Amino acid sequence: MIRFSGKLAGGAAIAALVATAALAQDGAAAGSQMLGRSQQQGGPQPAQLPPATPKPAESFDQAFPQTVSEPVVQAGMEAPAPLVQPWTVAQAAKLVGVIEGIGAEGLDPADYDLEPLKVALASGPSDELNQLASQSFVWLVEDLRDGRTPMEAREQWFVVDPDRETYRTGDILAEALATGDIAAALEKLNPTHPDYARLRAALIKTPESEAAKRKLIRANMDRWRWLARDLGQQYLITNVPEFQLRLTVKDQIIKTYRTVVGKPGRTATPQLAEMVQGVVFNPTWTVPQSIVKGEGLGAKVLANPAWAKRNGYVGTKGANGYISVVQQPGPGNSLGLMKLEMPNPHAIFFHDTPSRHLFANESRALSHGCIRTERALELAMTMAILGKGATKDEAVAISTSGKYKKVMLEKQWPAYITYFTMASDINGEMATFKDIYNRDAPVLASLEKPRVRNRSILPTDEVIVIEDDLQDS
After folding, report:
1. What fold characterizes domain 11-39+55-74+232-418?
2. Could you tell me if 11 and 252 are in contact, meaning their C-beta atoms sit under 8 angstroms apart?
3. What is the chain's alpha carbon radius of gyration, rounded to the nearest angstrom?
4. Which of 29, 46, 19, 48 is nearest to 396 (CA)?
């Protein structure tokens, strides 16, 4: 039995646990496969048979099902300190120096009224200097903390950044003036993830003549600012264009998993920051009406009960003729052997799939939006154990039972669904990734335009949930 005390285990302990879960996954998967055959054939099977090859889904939609969950509510905080405060000439001169060097952070000095500020500085202390210096400082805080890109250019971006409340503008201004270290007060707003520093270093090394590359670096630096400055001690993070999921501790990769993500268009995977609240082992799947009615599955299930039983379908026809179909737990279930419970209004989550051969594809933008995860049962067991929802033995027993079971986590894990076209790959090398959803264009275009003032701080894009989506039972 694996035990943890106090806080979640460190990187080494988690790595060991993942290795244990990987071994347990093999036994659990084999047990689930045997249970499925036992149910179909009417009796128990030998205990040590290897996992069976998953049976292909009846349709593309069945391989990539759709679901809906409840929204998450964000809490508010008190208003920040005043945004205009008195400046000395020495403090304002330091601010000018910061603005002149802000290009190193991928921002443009011209966005911060540098020339008017210099004129006011030359005239000495004044109300005008207080106004202009405070204004320029506030704009720097907003861009360094929240990102320069306006919400209208962030396609399918739905992360509510907590930094605006954690690092309040007026408080940062007051700290800078109290200490006199203007640069340090602003530097503390930079993202702590190592990739931001790596992109910053890449920008410095890239000559001005390589304008397109510099713009791409700047765009991806800004994407880090859209997220929380500090992602936490332990979290899941996936970069959609890379088709990879990382289990991360203290910004170090413990384990990686290949993913299948949403197809381009209305089923593209959105960018989210949610909490994994639980793990569902052996889920059921309520089939959407687009398949039940549109593809004739409902009629087939009712007309062919033996076929329906073999494939785990239970169909019900109401008095009004409405047919509902639920696929029972099993190795052929369209959600596979697990899903991570992370409620959000987009119905996006990580889960298993019976179509595991797709992980061998180089390009894996194939789903309805949810993220299919390689070695999903290993991930599920790791989350259940780390989250103190189950011991190792309990997780194995639940997963091999063939029965639906939701394990709620005492320690919830943040999960970040991101979209970077330049970032460190899973081998630690800086790489570029294909812009599979064409989300770069509006971000790059915004860099060519003047800074948007008084911009929205809330996502403005449309929440897309596929029609007739239904939650698993």
Report:
1. L,D-transpeptidase catalytic domain-like (2.40.440)
2. yes
3. 26
4. 29
Distance CA 212, CA 105 (A): 16
CB 418 within 8 A of CB 110: no
* Ramachandran bin of 399, using left for φ above 0, alpha for ψ from -120 to 50, beta for the remaining angles: alpha
Write the single-letter amino acid at 202. A
Residue 21 near residue 385 (C-beta atoms within 8 A) = yes
Q: Which residues contact 140 (CB under 8 A, 6 or more apart)?
A: 98, 99, 102, 107, 112, 186
* pLDDT tens-place string over residues 247-264: 999 889 999 999 999 999
Rounded distance between C-alpha atoms, residue 247 and residue 236, angstroms: 5
Pick the more confident residue, 141 or 50: 141
> Strands, DSSP E only, in 173-251?
234-239, 244-249
Mean pLDDT of the chain: 86
Distance CA 146, CA 403 (A): 45
**CA pair distance 380, 331, nearest whole angstrom:** 15
Contacts of 16 (CB under 8 A, 6+ apart): none
State how far the alpha carbon of 171 is from the alpha carbons of 84, 85, 178, 274, in Å.
11, 11, 10, 27
| Per-residue pLDDT tens over the stretch 424-451 | 999 999 999 999 999 999 999 999 999 9
**The pTM is what?**
0.84
Query: Secondary structure of the chain: what % helix, strand, coil (to 5)?
Result: 40, 15, 45
Helices (H), ranges, 284-375: 289-292, 297-303, 305-310
Q: What pLDDT does 23 receive?
A: 64
* Three-state DSSP class for residue 462: coil
337 alpha carbon, distance to own chain's centre: 21
Nearest to 269 by CA among 370, 363, 347: 370
Number of continuous H segments (helices) and E segments (strands) in the chain? 16, 14
| Confidence at residue 406, expressed as pLDDT on a 0 to 100 scale | 96
DSSP category for residue 271? B
Task: Give the pair of three-digit tokens for residue 67.
Answer: 């679901």
Q: Which of 413, 431, 434 is nearest to 422 (CA)?
A: 431
**CATH 2.40.440.10 boundaries in the chain:** 11-39+55-74+232-418
Rounded distance between C-alpha atoms, residue 264 and residue 368, angstroms: 9
- Percent of the chain at pLDDT > 70 equals 81
Q: How far apart are CA 291 and CA 99, in angstroms?
A: 57
d(CA 134, CA 173): 8
Q: Which of 285, 265, 262 is closest to 62 using CA atoms?
A: 285
DSSP sequence for 7-19: SPP-HHHHHHHHH
